[in-house]
Specification:
Blueprint: H1 2-11, H2 13-43, H3 47-74, H4 78-83, H5 86-90, H6 96-128, H7 136-163, H8 167-173, H9 175-194, H10 197-221, H11 224-229, H12 237-249, H13 255-269, H14 271-294, H15 296-299, H16 308-311, H17 327-346, H18 351-373, H19 378-412, H20 420-452, H21 454-462
Helix pairs in contact: 1-6, 2-3, 2-6, 3-6, 3-7, 3-9, 6-7, 6-10, 7-10, 12-20, 13-20, 14-18, 14-19, 17-18, 17-19, 17-20, 18-19, 19-20, 19-21
Length: 463
């Protein structure tokens, strides 16, 4: 299957010629840019900036050919449908996952080859211009990122090709791949200029996980019958609203029945996700505590014993509102955090949403360790400063994060009786159930306690 696709691609010079020419031009421009940057920064005594610019341009040179070659993957299925060659392909004895995987292999080959070609030309230009090469670790990181980014973009493009009804629609939907990947490149460039190798390796792992999940979604929801049956898609807002409402309401007839049956049924489905969130939350909190404890000597110059009293409002019984933090500010901040988890999770199969949750839990452990390094009691701060409102806020955070992770799990689980759109709408409806039925009330109670109760208890305990 993959060899058939590659043979068709290599036969068409109108595909090969633009990719090769554009791939060879960009590295020369990048070499000129790197040389100009080195000359400019050397004049002002900042060679480190130019040193970090070289691997950044290497990453850009590897990314650009992938975007040019993405059109091959975008028309992999829908293009054959328009050309009238899809029926013989679907009549082969290959299974659905074999068809998708073959297209994935063939669609990835051209972007990777052109990307590696661009990187090679760029490195040759650096050699002749006597610009120092990036170190071996950066080279390995860049090549690994380029490989996984190509797989990620091609997997998304082929998934779009299976869902689109025309090549024009597939090309327009490609912006949902190119723009997020461009934003990802910007984030990776910050890591490159920052010079933190550990964080960049975490980015490599994150892109690899997203690649595997996206490929899994494509394999799970690819159905050859749907390719022939789908002629045109219409944005049916009424159907979307009806599907969402049916999944949100379920079989409940009353509000009490909705809480009693639908919420509990949704929670039972998400028990594995909830257990996973609890586990990684505990790990993150302990890791944050250990990290601050191990680096307490570095933090000692910024935080000293006795500074704890200056961080707290003076006077027992004084509400937080008196120092500029109100109930609405606390409640709005918590709701905003849940919204960020939802938005990031929707674009990453729950991975980035879980990362935000992990950071929040890590901060709790870090704060407790920081209190200890300032001469306070972490146990007393945890019991009187976090636990009163935390018994409501932390479960809300766990449930919201588990619900967004469940969306990713639902998308990568094969459900032949459901389309990809139906699965996504039903999963979002489940998250909305948990969000409005449990998370929002818990956050409201937590904000009330954090505003008027926690300061009283904490100050009384620390007096």
């Amino acid at each position: 299957m993959a060899w058939r696709e590659l043979r068709d691609q290599l036969r068409d010079w109108r595909i090969i010629f633009p990719m090769v020419v554009l791939t060879l031009i960009l590295p020369f421009l990048a070499d000129l840019g790197a040389q100009a940057a080195i000359n400019f920064t050397t004049q002002y005594g900042t060679p480190l900036v130019a040193e970090r610019l070289v691997p950044f341009l290497l990453m850009v040179v590897g990314y650009f050919p992938i975007t040019v070659s993405l059109v091959i993957a975008l028309e992999s299925f829908v293009g054959e449908k328009e050309r009238g060659t899809i029926e013989p392909l679907l009549l082969t004895p290959l299974k659905d996952w074999q068809l998708f995987t073959g297209k994935l292999i063939a669609g990835t080959a051209a972007p990777l080859v052109t990307s590696y070609l661009g990187i090679t030309v760029y490195m040759i230009g650096l050699y002749f211009q006597r610009i120092p090469f990036p170190d071996l670790n950066r080279m390995i990181q860049t090549l690994t990122l380029t490989t996984f980014q190509a797989l990620l973009m091609v997997s998304g493009a082929i998934l779009i090709s299976t869902q689109a009804t025309s090549v024009r629609a597939a090309n327009l939907m490609a912006s949902f791949i190119v723009i997020p990947m461009a934003l990802l490149i910007q984030g990776e460039s910050v890591m490159l200029f920052w010079g933190n190798d550990q964080v960049l390796w975490l980015a490599v792992v994150g892109v690899a996980v997203l690649t595997a999940l996206l490929a899994r979604v494509g394999i799970a929801h690819f159905q050859r019958e749907a390719l022939l049956g789908r002629e045109i898609d219409v944005l049916n807002l009424r159907w979307i609203g009806r599907t969402f409402w049916q999944a949100f309401k379920g079989d409940a007839k009353t509000l009490w029945g909705w809480f009693r049956f639908e919420i509990l049924k949704t929670l039972r489905k998400q028990i594995p996700s909830i257990i996973l969130m609890i586990a990684i939350g505990l790990i993150a909190a302990v890791a944050g505590y250990i990290w601050v404890t191990m680096n307490s000597t570095k933090l000692g110059g910024q935080f000293k014993a006795g500074d704890l009293s200056s961080l707290l409002p003076s006077g027992v019984g004084l509400p937080i509102a008196s120092v500029g933090i109100s109930f609405l500010a606390i409640w709005g901040h918590n709701v905003q955090a849940i919204g960020v988890i939802l938005l990031l999770g929707l674009f990453s199969f729950g991975v980035l949403g879980a990362l935000v949750y992990l950071l929040n839990m890590g901060i709790i452990g870090a704060v407790l360790a920081l209190i200890g390094s300032m001469g306070g009691s972490p146990l007393k701060m945890g019991v009187w400063g976090i636990l009163p409102h935390g018994i409501f806020e932390i479960p809300a955070l766990i449930l919201a994060s588990a619900a967004i992770l469940y969306i990713g799990i639902a998308l990568v689980t094969p459900r032949p009786q459901r389309t990809l759109g139906e699965v996504l709408i039903e999963a979002i409806a489940d998250w909305t159930k948990i969000g409005f039925g449990i998370v929002l009330p818990l956050l409201t109670i937590a904000a009330i306690i954090e505003t008027w109760v926690t300061p009283v208890l904490l100050l009384s305990a620390l007096k």
